[in-house]
Amino acid sequence: MISINGLHKQFGDLEVLKGIDLQINKGEVIVVIGPSGSGKTTLLRCLNILEVPTSGSITIDDQTADFSKSLPKRSIDLFRKKSAMVFQHYNLFPHMTAIQNVMEGPVIVKKLSKAEARKKAEQLLIKVGLGDKLDFYPHQLSGGQQQRVGIARALALEPKVMLFDEPTSALDPELVGEVLQVMKDLAGEGITMVVVTHEMRFANDVADEVIFMDQGKIIERSKPVDMFTNPKEERTKQFLNLLQ
Amino acid sequence: MFWNSFSVDPEKMERYLDIAQSSLQPLLEGAVVYTLPLSLISFILGLALAVLTALARISTVKPFQWIARFYVSAIRGTPLLVQLFILFYGLGSVGIVIDPFPAAVIGFSLNVGAYASEVIRAAILSIPKGQWEAAHMIGMSYSQTLKRVILPQATRVSIPPLSNTFISLVKDTSLASLILVTEMFRRAQEIAATNYEVLLLYTEVAIIYWIICFFLSLIQGRLEHRFDRYVSR
Q1: How far is B145 from chain A (nearest CA, A)?
Q2: B128 vs chain A: nearest CA distance in angstroms?
Q3: DSSP string over A98-125
Q4: ipTM above 0.90?
Q5: What is the pTM of this model?
């Protein structure tokens, strides 16, 4: 489903991604962990071209983006459609209600009729447990509810891959569970997911594989059991020890 | 006694009331036919110009930035009255004759465009980067993002400063009297020239400006309230 080859990203003099190679199969849930500054969020953002990689290539589904050439806008658009992102700070549109937030992509970008988009958006909001909050503005919702709207908004785009960028880091502890539960349900449905998170419990319970990144490189990739009980690399051990 | 100079002579009082009353109609006519349309048309054209200028300023295309900077600098750096004189008398003297009213509209629109562009630029920049990212993520183009996500939010932020601009504009239109637009203040001057009650007429016209601006402030309050519905307080 996803194939990343020799991906580099440079911000000025700072090399954030130093050659990432990664294959992810359809339906897999991959959790990316690592210290801050390890490049995990940048990697995720590259998958949606919110950052333009300096070189390398990414294939998602049947779309390939080769960043050693300059990309025409048209192919960026097509490539972007393959994935949808859930942001750390939700980034909901504050001037739109929950259902308007979810409908926006289908109506404006996919040119779906309003009635159709509304029906779909309603189903998605019911699915994330917000069937009674359709007409609420984001500021009237709790952080956990806002993030679930964010997940519904991403799902409405019908992406091949769902990207989660630390989706629970901005939440009060008691609200983390409801968001993780929705993500768990999605994983159960067989959606391909790439999740950057610090929630090791979630990684352990839901991930098919865990990737540990440090200093712009993938240090280790393994099943969660192996990663958490028997990490191979010294750097991984250090990081996991720090968390305990 | 000093006080005596303030004592009210009934006959004089009657004359004042008479003049105040009879001048009210031509003054209001000047307001309705010239002052208000001039303000409104200039503000709308000026706003359109301001949005374009603001977008040019924040664009990554250097020449756009230069043009916008030059325009804002030239307008803000020169007196409004001088600009009006250039448009009307100056251009007129070299054969480019513009009627008073359109000349005033051009002058005021250019002025609003320059000042309001800075307001709008600041408002656009005040919208968090995450809003642009979310819009790009769902597949919106630059213009869709502006129209659907950024400008609606920027509008809310700009209502108070833009109301300032509009209220200033309403009062600045009195300068159009000097390029022969028979707006409210020019009417007052004309009437005062016939009866020499200068203080009375200029005070009267001041009060009318004040009342107009008072109502504009009320409208500002309502607009702010309307746009606040999606923000927590």
Answers
A1: 10
A2: 9
A3: HHHHHHHIIIIIS---HHHHHHHHHHHH
A4: yes
A5: 0.86
